Amino acid sequence: MNIIAICGSPRKGNTEFVLRRFLIKAEEFGHKTDLILLREKKIGHCNSCFSCNDEGSCNMRDDMAGIVERIMADDLIVFGSPNYFNNVTGLMKDFMDRLQPLRVEDKLAGKKAVVIMVGEEGDSKSSAAIATMTSAADILKMAKVGDLYLVAKKALDVENNPESVQKIDDFAKNILS
Amino acid sequence: MDVIAICGSPRKGNTEFILKRLLMKAEGAGHKTELVLLREKKIGYCMGCLGCDKSGACPISDDMDAIIASMEKSDLIIFASPNYYNNVSGIMKVFFDRMNVLYGTDKLSGKKVSVIFVGEEVKTIQKAILSVESIANSFGMDIVCSLYLNGKGPRDIETNPESVQKIDDFAKIFLS
Protein backbone atom coordinates (compact mmCIF):
# COMPACT_ATOMS: atom_id res chain seq x y z
CA MET A 1 0.00 0.00 0.00
CA ASN A 2 0.92 3.65 -0.34
CA ILE A 3 0.56 5.16 3.10
CA ILE A 4 0.62 8.84 4.02
CA ALA A 5 0.59 10.24 7.53
CA ILE A 6 -0.67 13.77 8.19
CA CYS A 7 0.76 15.30 11.37
CA GLY A 8 -1.44 18.01 12.92
CA SER A 9 0.88 18.88 15.78
CA PRO A 10 2.31 22.38 15.93
CA ARG A 11 5.50 21.11 17.60
CA LYS A 12 8.01 18.31 17.15
CA GLY A 13 6.80 15.96 19.86
CA ASN A 14 4.70 12.92 20.58
CA THR A 15 2.38 12.93 17.57
CA GLU A 16 5.27 13.16 15.14
CA PHE A 17 7.15 10.44 17.01
CA VAL A 18 4.14 8.11 16.89
CA LEU A 19 3.62 8.71 13.18
CA ARG A 20 7.31 8.21 12.32
CA ARG A 21 7.39 4.97 14.30
CA PHE A 22 4.17 3.78 12.66
CA LEU A 23 5.64 4.54 9.21
CA ILE A 24 8.92 2.75 9.99
CA LYS A 25 6.88 -0.34 10.86
CA ALA A 26 4.86 0.10 7.67
CA GLU A 27 8.09 0.18 5.63
CA GLU A 28 9.17 -3.05 7.36
CA PHE A 29 5.95 -4.64 6.20
CA GLY A 30 6.77 -3.58 2.64
CA HIS A 31 4.57 -0.50 2.29
CA LYS A 32 5.59 2.82 0.77
CA THR A 33 5.22 5.75 3.14
CA ASP A 34 5.32 9.52 3.37
CA LEU A 35 4.90 11.99 6.24
CA ILE A 36 3.42 15.47 5.96
CA LEU A 37 4.06 17.89 8.81
CA LEU A 38 1.27 20.44 8.62
CA ARG A 39 3.23 22.89 10.75
CA GLU A 40 5.74 23.24 7.92
CA LYS A 41 3.03 23.87 5.33
CA LYS A 42 1.22 27.00 4.35
CA ILE A 43 -2.50 26.14 4.39
CA GLY A 44 -5.10 28.90 4.53
CA HIS A 45 -8.50 28.65 6.21
CA CYS A 46 -11.22 27.40 3.86
CA ASN A 47 -13.12 30.58 2.94
CA SER A 48 -16.32 28.73 2.11
CA CYS A 49 -16.63 30.23 -1.36
CA PHE A 50 -18.14 26.98 -2.73
CA SER A 51 -15.97 27.07 -5.85
CA CYS A 52 -15.22 23.39 -5.17
CA ASN A 53 -18.95 22.72 -5.22
CA ASP A 54 -19.40 24.65 -8.43
CA GLU A 55 -16.16 23.96 -10.30
CA GLY A 56 -14.70 20.94 -8.52
CA SER A 57 -11.52 22.73 -7.49
CA CYS A 58 -10.30 25.07 -4.78
CA ASN A 59 -9.35 28.59 -5.80
CA MET A 60 -6.82 29.08 -3.01
CA ARG A 61 -3.17 28.81 -4.01
CA ASP A 62 -1.05 27.33 -1.26
CA ASP A 63 0.56 24.05 -0.16
CA MET A 64 -2.79 22.24 0.00
CA ALA A 65 -2.83 21.62 -3.78
CA GLY A 66 0.33 19.52 -3.56
CA ILE A 67 -0.95 17.58 -0.55
CA VAL A 68 -4.26 16.85 -2.26
CA GLU A 69 -2.46 15.54 -5.33
CA ARG A 70 -0.27 13.39 -3.10
CA ILE A 71 -3.06 11.81 -1.05
CA MET A 72 -5.02 10.96 -4.17
CA ALA A 73 -2.27 8.42 -4.92
CA ASP A 74 -2.44 6.85 -1.45
CA ASP A 75 -4.34 3.82 -0.22
CA LEU A 76 -4.23 4.60 3.49
CA ILE A 77 -4.23 8.00 5.20
CA VAL A 78 -3.15 8.33 8.83
CA PHE A 79 -4.61 11.38 10.57
CA GLY A 80 -2.50 12.21 13.63
CA SER A 81 -3.20 15.06 16.02
CA PRO A 82 -2.69 16.02 19.62
CA ASN A 83 -5.93 16.36 21.57
CA TYR A 84 -6.78 20.03 22.12
CA PHE A 85 -10.07 20.58 23.93
CA ASN A 86 -11.37 17.10 23.09
CA ASN A 87 -10.84 17.83 19.42
CA VAL A 88 -8.13 18.00 16.77
CA THR A 89 -5.78 20.99 16.64
CA GLY A 90 -6.63 24.13 14.69
CA LEU A 91 -3.87 23.19 12.26
CA MET A 92 -5.51 19.81 11.61
CA LYS A 93 -9.00 21.34 11.41
CA ASP A 94 -7.84 23.80 8.75
CA PHE A 95 -6.45 20.84 6.78
CA MET A 96 -9.70 18.88 7.15
CA ASP A 97 -11.80 21.84 6.02
CA ARG A 98 -9.64 22.15 2.92
CA LEU A 99 -10.37 18.51 1.98
CA GLN A 100 -13.79 19.75 0.87
CA PRO A 101 -12.95 19.65 -2.90
CA LEU A 102 -12.26 15.91 -2.49
CA ARG A 103 -15.46 15.38 -0.51
CA VAL A 104 -17.57 17.01 -3.20
CA GLU A 105 -16.56 14.35 -5.72
CA ASP A 106 -16.12 11.47 -3.26
CA LYS A 107 -12.47 11.25 -4.26
CA LEU A 108 -11.37 9.75 -0.93
CA ALA A 109 -14.22 7.24 -0.86
CA GLY A 110 -13.00 3.73 -0.12
CA LYS A 111 -9.51 4.78 0.95
CA LYS A 112 -8.46 3.46 4.33
CA ALA A 113 -8.17 5.80 7.31
CA VAL A 114 -6.30 5.50 10.59
CA VAL A 115 -6.85 7.98 13.43
CA ILE A 116 -4.12 8.63 16.00
CA MET A 117 -4.47 11.07 18.88
CA VAL A 118 -2.17 11.98 21.74
CA GLY A 119 -3.46 13.67 24.87
CA GLU A 120 -3.09 14.12 28.59
CA GLU A 121 -5.96 11.86 29.50
CA GLY A 122 -8.39 9.49 27.85
CA ASP A 123 -8.50 6.40 25.68
CA SER A 124 -9.64 5.58 22.19
CA LYS A 125 -13.11 4.41 23.21
CA SER A 126 -14.07 7.50 25.19
CA SER A 127 -12.16 10.16 23.30
CA ALA A 128 -14.40 12.79 21.73
CA ALA A 129 -11.39 13.81 19.65
CA ILE A 130 -11.15 10.33 18.10
CA ALA A 131 -14.92 10.41 17.50
CA THR A 132 -14.62 13.78 15.77
CA MET A 133 -11.87 12.62 13.44
CA THR A 134 -13.72 9.36 12.78
CA SER A 135 -16.84 11.33 11.91
CA ALA A 136 -14.84 13.38 9.38
CA ALA A 137 -13.47 10.17 7.83
CA ASP A 138 -17.05 8.88 7.59
CA ILE A 139 -18.18 12.06 5.87
CA LEU A 140 -15.34 11.57 3.36
CA LYS A 141 -16.64 7.98 2.90
CA MET A 142 -13.29 6.56 3.95
CA ALA A 143 -13.03 3.15 5.61
CA LYS A 144 -11.54 3.58 9.07
CA VAL A 145 -9.36 0.58 9.88
CA GLY A 146 -8.15 1.56 13.33
CA ASP A 147 -7.54 4.20 15.94
CA LEU A 148 -4.94 4.69 18.63
CA TYR A 149 -4.98 7.03 21.62
CA LEU A 150 -1.78 7.54 23.59
CA VAL A 151 -1.48 9.40 26.87
CA ALA A 152 1.23 12.07 26.95
CA LYS A 153 1.78 15.74 27.59
CA LYS A 154 5.43 16.80 27.33
CA ALA A 155 7.19 16.46 23.97
CA LEU A 156 9.12 13.25 24.77
CA ASP A 157 6.54 11.46 26.94
CA VAL A 158 5.66 8.77 24.39
CA GLU A 159 9.21 8.19 23.20
CA ASN A 160 10.41 7.68 26.78
CA ASN A 161 7.65 5.26 27.71
CA PRO A 162 8.41 1.70 26.52
CA GLU A 163 4.78 0.70 27.07
CA SER A 164 3.56 3.43 24.70
CA VAL A 165 6.17 2.50 22.09
CA GLN A 166 5.02 -1.11 22.32
CA LYS A 167 1.43 0.01 21.76
CA ILE A 168 2.47 1.74 18.53
CA ASP A 169 4.29 -1.36 17.33
CA ASP A 170 1.36 -3.64 18.15
CA PHE A 171 -1.09 -1.25 16.51
CA ALA A 172 1.00 -1.08 13.32
CA LYS A 173 1.32 -4.84 13.22
CA ASN A 174 -2.42 -5.35 13.62
CA ILE A 175 -3.27 -2.99 10.82
CA LEU A 176 -0.43 -3.46 8.37
CA SER A 177 0.84 -7.00 8.51
CA MET B 1 -24.92 42.72 30.72
CA ASP B 2 -21.83 42.95 28.54
CA VAL B 3 -22.37 40.56 25.64
CA ILE B 4 -19.59 39.46 23.27
CA ALA B 5 -20.17 37.35 20.17
CA ILE B 6 -17.34 35.44 18.49
CA CYS B 7 -18.01 34.72 14.82
CA GLY B 8 -16.07 31.75 13.41
CA SER B 9 -17.27 32.02 9.84
CA PRO B 10 -14.69 32.69 7.13
CA ARG B 11 -17.26 34.59 5.04
CA LYS B 12 -19.94 37.22 5.50
CA GLY B 13 -23.00 34.99 5.61
CA ASN B 14 -25.49 33.28 7.87
CA THR B 15 -23.45 33.05 11.07
CA GLU B 16 -22.65 36.74 10.99
CA PHE B 17 -26.26 37.63 10.17
CA ILE B 18 -27.53 35.68 13.20
CA LEU B 19 -25.03 37.31 15.53
CA LYS B 20 -25.75 40.83 14.27
CA ARG B 21 -29.48 40.24 14.72
CA LEU B 22 -29.00 38.83 18.23
CA LEU B 23 -26.75 41.71 19.25
CA MET B 24 -29.22 44.23 17.85
CA LYS B 25 -31.90 42.66 20.05
CA ALA B 26 -29.51 42.74 22.99
CA GLU B 27 -28.78 46.45 22.43
CA GLY B 28 -32.53 47.06 22.24
CA ALA B 29 -32.87 45.44 25.66
CA GLY B 30 -30.21 47.76 27.10
CA HIS B 31 -27.17 45.48 26.97
CA LYS B 32 -23.71 46.43 25.73
CA THR B 33 -22.46 44.33 22.85
CA GLU B 34 -19.34 43.54 20.87
CA LEU B 35 -19.00 41.43 17.72
CA VAL B 36 -15.64 39.79 16.95
CA LEU B 37 -15.25 38.58 13.37
CA LEU B 38 -12.40 36.07 13.56
CA ARG B 39 -11.86 36.28 9.80
CA GLU B 40 -10.70 39.88 10.22
CA LYS B 41 -8.30 39.02 13.03
CA LYS B 42 -4.74 37.84 13.04
CA ILE B 43 -4.64 34.79 15.32
CA GLY B 44 -1.68 32.43 15.10
CA TYR B 45 -1.79 28.72 15.78
CA CYS B 46 -1.20 27.60 19.36
CA MET B 47 2.32 26.12 19.26
CA GLY B 48 1.77 23.61 22.08
CA CYS B 49 4.73 25.21 23.92
CA LEU B 50 2.86 25.01 27.25
CA GLY B 51 4.23 28.48 28.06
CA CYS B 52 0.79 29.36 29.44
CA ASP B 53 0.97 26.39 31.82
CA LYS B 54 4.23 27.69 33.23
CA SER B 55 3.81 31.46 33.25
CA GLY B 56 0.08 32.04 32.82
CA ALA B 57 0.77 34.04 29.65
CA CYS B 58 0.94 33.22 25.94
CA PRO B 59 4.21 34.07 24.20
CA ILE B 60 2.35 34.79 20.96
CA SER B 61 1.36 38.43 20.67
CA ASP B 62 -1.46 39.06 18.20
CA ASP B 63 -5.16 39.97 18.09
CA MET B 64 -5.99 37.22 20.59
CA ASP B 65 -4.80 39.43 23.48
CA ALA B 66 -7.58 41.99 22.94
CA ILE B 67 -10.25 39.31 22.41
CA ILE B 68 -9.33 37.61 25.68
CA ALA B 69 -9.45 40.95 27.51
CA SER B 70 -12.96 41.55 26.09
CA MET B 71 -14.13 38.06 27.05
CA GLU B 72 -12.86 38.53 30.59
CA LYS B 73 -14.94 41.71 30.95
CA SER B 74 -18.10 40.20 29.49
CA ASP B 75 -21.04 38.54 31.24
CA LEU B 76 -22.30 36.51 28.28
CA ILE B 77 -20.19 35.01 25.49
CA ILE B 78 -21.69 33.68 22.26
CA PHE B 79 -19.60 31.18 20.29
CA ALA B 80 -20.91 30.85 16.74
CA SER B 81 -19.57 28.82 13.84
CA PRO B 82 -20.68 27.23 10.62
CA ASN B 83 -20.70 23.44 10.81
CA TYR B 84 -17.72 21.96 8.96
CA TYR B 85 -17.38 18.18 9.31
CA ASN B 86 -19.63 18.02 12.39
CA ASN B 87 -17.24 20.45 14.04
CA VAL B 88 -16.36 24.12 14.26
CA SER B 89 -14.59 25.86 11.37
CA GLY B 90 -10.79 25.80 11.30
CA ILE B 91 -10.66 29.50 12.13
CA MET B 92 -12.83 28.87 15.22
CA LYS B 93 -10.70 25.94 16.32
CA VAL B 94 -7.54 28.03 16.04
CA PHE B 95 -9.27 30.58 18.29
CA PHE B 96 -10.31 27.92 20.85
CA ASP B 97 -6.80 26.45 20.95
CA ARG B 98 -5.45 29.88 21.87
CA MET B 99 -7.91 30.07 24.78
CA ASN B 100 -5.68 27.55 26.53
CA VAL B 101 -4.05 30.50 28.28
CA LEU B 102 -7.31 30.79 30.29
CA TYR B 103 -7.51 27.06 31.01
CA GLY B 104 -7.12 26.25 34.70
CA THR B 105 -7.88 29.87 35.69
CA ASP B 106 -11.28 31.05 36.91
CA LYS B 107 -11.35 33.99 34.51
CA LEU B 108 -14.32 32.68 32.53
CA SER B 109 -15.97 30.62 35.23
CA GLY B 110 -19.58 31.48 35.92
CA LYS B 111 -19.93 33.52 32.75
CA LYS B 112 -22.97 32.74 30.65
CA VAL B 113 -22.35 31.09 27.30
CA SER B 114 -24.45 30.38 24.26
CA VAL B 115 -23.46 28.18 21.31
CA ILE B 116 -24.74 28.77 17.78
CA PHE B 117 -24.20 26.68 14.66
CA VAL B 118 -25.28 27.01 11.06
CA GLY B 119 -25.18 24.13 8.64
CA GLU B 120 -26.84 21.74 6.27
CA GLU B 121 -26.83 18.55 8.34
CA VAL B 122 -29.50 18.74 11.00
CA LYS B 123 -29.07 15.07 11.94
CA THR B 124 -25.49 15.30 13.12
CA ILE B 125 -25.18 18.89 14.30
CA GLN B 126 -25.54 17.84 17.93
CA LYS B 127 -21.95 16.57 17.81
CA ALA B 128 -20.69 20.00 16.86
CA ILE B 129 -22.75 21.74 19.52
CA LEU B 130 -21.61 19.27 22.18
CA SER B 131 -17.97 19.77 21.25
CA VAL B 132 -18.21 23.52 21.90
CA GLU B 133 -20.33 23.06 25.03
CA SER B 134 -17.62 20.72 26.29
CA ILE B 135 -15.04 23.48 25.82
CA ALA B 136 -17.28 25.95 27.67
CA ASN B 137 -17.70 23.39 30.47
CA SER B 138 -13.96 23.00 30.80
CA PHE B 139 -13.77 26.74 31.60
CA GLY B 140 -16.54 26.45 34.19
CA MET B 141 -18.91 28.53 32.09
CA ASP B 142 -22.66 28.39 32.50
CA ILE B 143 -24.36 27.16 29.31
CA VAL B 144 -27.57 29.14 28.81
CA CYS B 145 -28.87 27.77 25.53
CA SER B 146 -27.75 26.71 22.09
CA LEU B 147 -29.21 27.36 18.66
CA TYR B 148 -28.90 25.54 15.36
CA LEU B 149 -30.15 26.96 12.10
CA ASN B 150 -30.22 25.41 8.67
CA GLY B 151 -28.37 27.32 5.98
CA LYS B 152 -25.94 26.84 3.11
CA GLY B 153 -25.93 29.77 0.70
CA PRO B 154 -24.74 32.96 2.46
CA ARG B 155 -28.24 34.55 2.57
CA ASP B 156 -30.29 31.42 3.32
CA ILE B 157 -31.19 32.51 6.85
CA GLU B 158 -31.66 36.20 6.17
CA THR B 159 -34.18 35.39 3.46
CA ASN B 160 -36.10 32.80 5.49
CA PRO B 161 -38.67 34.49 7.76
CA GLU B 162 -39.02 31.32 9.84
CA SER B 163 -35.28 31.30 10.63
CA VAL B 164 -35.32 35.01 11.47
CA GLN B 165 -38.22 34.39 13.85
CA LYS B 166 -36.20 31.63 15.52
CA ILE B 167 -33.36 34.08 16.13
CA ASP B 168 -35.75 36.59 17.70
CA ASP B 169 -37.31 33.91 19.92
CA PHE B 170 -33.85 32.73 20.90
CA ALA B 171 -32.81 36.30 21.79
CA LYS B 172 -35.68 36.47 24.28
CA ILE B 173 -34.49 33.29 26.01
CA PHE B 174 -30.84 34.13 26.36
CA LEU B 175 -31.40 37.76 27.31
CA SER B 176 -34.01 37.02 29.94
3D structure, described in words:
- The complex is a heterodimer of chains A (177) and B (176).
- Chain A is of the alpha/beta class.
- Chain A has helices spanning 14-28, 51-55, 64-72, 90-97, 100-104, 128-139, 162-176; strands at residues 2-7, 32-37, 76-82, 112-119, 143-151.
- Chain A has a single domain, classed as Flavodoxin domain (Rossmann fold), CATH 3.40.50.360.
- Chain A has 7 helices and 5 strands, in the order E-H-E-H-H-E-H-H-E-H-E-H.
- In chain A, strands 2-1-3-4-5 form a 5-stranded parallel β-sheet, with helices on both faces.
- Chain B has one domain (2-175): Flavodoxin domain (Rossmann fold).
- In chain B, helix 1 packs across helix 6 (161-175).
- The longest helix of chain B is centred in the N-terminal third of the chain and has 15 residues, at 14-28.
- At the A-B interface, helix 4 and helix 6 of A face helix 4 and helix 5 of B.
Instruction: Give me the CATH fold name of chain A.
Output: Rossmann fold
Large-scale geometry of chain B: globular
The proportion of residues in beta strands of chain A is 15-25%
Strand elements of chain A, count = 5
Low-pLDDT runs of chain B? none
What separation lies between the terminal Cα atoms of chain A? 11 Å
Determine the oligomeric state from the structure. heterodimer
List unreliable stretches of 5+ residues of chain A: none
Residue share in helix of chain B: 25-40%
Q: Output the structural class of chain B.
A: alpha/beta
What is the H/E order of chain B? EHEHHEHEHEH
Question: What spatial form of chain A do the alpha-carbon principal axes imply?
Answer: globular
CATH-assigned homologous superfamily of chain B: Flavodoxin domain
CATH third-tier fold name of chain B: Rossmann fold
Brief account:
Chain A is an alpha/beta fold. Chain A has helices at residues 14-28, 51-55, 64-72, 90-97, 100-104, 128-139, 162-176, and strands at residues 2-7, 32-37, 76-82, 112-119, 143-151. Chain A is built from 7 helices and 5 strands.
